[in-house]
From TrEMBL:
Keywords: 4Fe-4S, DNA-directed DNA polymerase, Iron, Iron-sulfur, Metal-binding, Nucleotidyltransferase, Nucleus, Transferase, Zinc, Zinc-finger. This is DNA-directed DNA polymerase. It is found in: Nucleus. One of its GO terms (biological process) is DNA replication proofreading. It catalyses: DNA(n) + a 2'-deoxyribonucleoside 5'-triphosphate = DNA(n+1) + diphosphate.
Amino acid sequence: MPKKRYVGLYWTRTDKFDKIDTKGIETVRRDNCAFVRSVIDTCLQKILVEREIEGAKYFDKQMISDLLQNKMDMSFLVISKQITRPIESYTNAQPHVELAKKIEQRTGVKPQMGERVFYVITERGKDARAYEKAEDQQYAMEQELSIDTNYYLSQQLKKPLLHLFTPVMGSGSVGELFSGAHTRVIRKPSQSTMSMKGTMGRFFSVGVTCLCCHAPIRTSVQKQGLKLGIISPSPQTSQKSQAVCDTCKLEGKEGYTLMDTLATARWCEQEFSMVLAQCQRCSSSLHRPFECSLRDCALYYYKTKVRKDLEDAYECLNRFGPPCQMREIYHLTNILLISSINTQCNYFKLKQCDICSRIVKLSIINQL
């Protein structure tokens, strides 16, 4: 490793080492994201303590694969830089300085000298510079912006891993960490219409897909028009009331999909309630609104993520049709019994709830 940057086992006794002593590397630097610090910490543990070189290599490849497939939580990719002088005195464009200017334009609040600016690197085009791709994480989550995983791999993770593994593997073999089967699968998250504003995506309509098999859903008018070749095959907004496609309906999968959606919504409600209660306790504000500005907290961005997931789950539930008494009872108790349906559902009297009719048929099939 370079000068003033080293790592080793710290010994004060002969039977056991005290700790892994690190100086100047990415695990102790605040301007690196938590993802890099976690990967380097685990590799040091495997190499120095467990003496498992192959285990460290396998772990690195798995983390790189998860990064390229967008399996990493965005809160682990937050980078922070300190504003060391007045913003006007910066001559070169830097990511945290340009983001500070954006924040001032959006909110009217200007980050002061000495404050740290937290940001993530998003995708802004092939030729975009790093300072153009820097964005506030909460804004990126709300707008559903895609993370530039190649930047984190090449600019954040690659150099520390080269410093760590070159003395162990040799300069000729260390390249296998960044090439191979684990780097060939790359997934990009789907973007909504809101996130595509200002791009070519605003000229296209967002299609509605089946919640079960993810196949495109088209109305009967569109199906007839496609046969005649007189209308566009792009779905319309009226399709959002349909949850599953006709094929999944015939196969009896609509009830299973509804219960999975209800379970997801309930889990999101529990997570959001837990995070909100923790934030209220930390701020000593149990009965009045509060605003948290502690961005170093692990729950700061997780709260925004859970709220978005809860809104998406409610949107999926609305596609099954208007809510009824049975859905509310099942949503609160998570109990699905024939007796409760017979006594508490209006389906047998008014025949107004399609959701309950599907649940009854599903329950009868399960008991046969």
